[in-house]
Amino acid sequence: MCMFKSGFIGLTGRTNVGKSTLINAILSKNVVITSDKPQTTRDRINCIYNTETAQAVFVDCPGFFKPKDLLGQKLNKIIYSVLEDVDIIVAMLDISENIGPGDKYVIERVKNRVQPKILVLNKTDLLPDKKKPCIADVVFGLRAEFGFFENIIPVSAATGDNIDVLLGMLIEKLPEGPKYFTDGIITDMPAGKMISEIVREKLAENLFDELPHSVIVEVENIEKSRTKSSGNITKIECSIYVEKKSHKPIIIGKSGTMLKKVGQSAREKIEEMLGSRVYLQLWVKVMENWTKNENFLNKLGYE
Questions:
Q1: Cβ distance 231 to 277 under 8 Å?
Q2: Beta strand 45-50 pairing with 54-60
Q3: Do 295 and 198 belong to one domain?
Q4: Do 166 and 258 belong to one domain?
Q5: Over the stretch 148-195, which tens digit does the pLDDT of each residue have?
Q6: Judgement on whether residues 24 and 169 belong to the same structural domain of the protein
Q7: Does residue 203 share a domain with residue 169?
Q8: Whole-angstrom Cα distance, residue 92 to residue 153?
Q9: Which of 188, 149, 199 is nearest to 44 (CA)?
Q10: Is 183 part of any domain?
Q11: How is residue 78 annotated by DSSP?
Q12: Which among 1, 123, 182, 235 could disulfide-bond with 96, CB atoms 3.0 to 4.6 Å apart, if both were Cys?
């Protein structure tokens, strides 16, 4: 009888190296939000990959960065908590950029951990063609410098290149264990949190550099009902919090056009997730210095 293997795989790296994109590529679903902005992921998110003989729980968490406020301190606390709990650690670098102090800071944080450690070199697709033949030399150099990694593997989370090799490597290293999540579950993120993440993702997509990063979305109410004409409908009320009064008109846009655009694209994705029609109502509220407000952060789950 073939033994069943299971365990938790923690992904770490500096901000914006593609951790969330990698998980979405493995699961073939957009489970966690992605953006070219740093600090897109703000929570510990368990994402479940199942085979007949294994269950790999990928733990996405915020990227390492130097905290500037209480929110930053709490995000780094999440990262250290993940590193303590998981069975395998995956450290990720962006191979299309030079390895900098931020990458070395991450590597130092995982260096002395007892778990098996794998170094993933992401974004091979962004390398110029003339540099792609040099990937093997880069891997050789990193093996010499960081010999505590059991494997070093280049991938492209965006194109899927080498993802199957990485996945096979990770499953092979999983310990024998139980099935932690039942079949069909791909994430343990509550529906309300997934909705707030979708809204925040659409804010990032539509506002680009104009979006102040001190934005958070809270789902105030979810109510399912049924109408005679259109069947099931889910009414959702969300508050978008910003730190400064000057940020509010940026998100609302002229005559409300930006908020309407964000709401429409978020609604479509939420409907796909819930499998029902959605009425989405968004409010923009000012909560000055919320990233430094202990009570407010605790209320949002950052304890």
A1: yes
A2: antiparallel
A3: yes
A4: no
A5: 999 999 999 999 999 999 999 999 999 999 999 888 888 877 888 888
A6: yes
A7: no
A8: 10
A9: 188
A10: no
A11: H
A12: 123
pTM of the model: 0.73
For residues 165, 167, 169, 174, the Cα torsion angle rounded to the nearest 10 degrees is: -170
Cβ atoms 152, 142 nearer than 8 A: yes
Q: Round to whole Å and give the CA distance between 56 and 171.
A: 7
**Strand-pair partners of 89:** 10, 117
**Angle between the 191-207 and 257-274 helix axes, to the nearest 10 degrees?**
140
Per-residue pLDDT tens over the stretch 38-68: 444 455 678 899 999 999 999 877 666 566 6
Tokens 């479940």 sit at which residue?
Answer: 48
Residue with tokens 């659409």: 202
Beta strands in the chain (DSSP E): 5-12, 45-50, 54-60, 88-94, 117-122, 151-154, 215-227, 231-242, 277-286
The least confident of 71-75, 102-106, 113-117, 242-246 is 71-75
Q: How far is CA 273 from CA 170, 198, 208, 302, in A?
A: 28, 10, 24, 25
CA angle centred on 157, ends 156 and 162, rounded to 5°: 55
Contacts for 40 with CB less than 8 Å, ≥ 6 apart: 15, 16, 20, 33, 34, 201, 204
Cβ neighbours, 10 Å, residue 67: 14
Q: Return the bridge partners of 93, or none.
A: 121
Query: Which domain range does residue 279 map to?
Result: 191-299
Q: Which two tokens stand for residue 100?
A: 């900098």
CA atoms of 93 and 211, how far apart (whole Å)? 26
Residues 169 and 212 in one domain: no
Cβ–Cβ under 8 Å, residues 125 and 158: yes
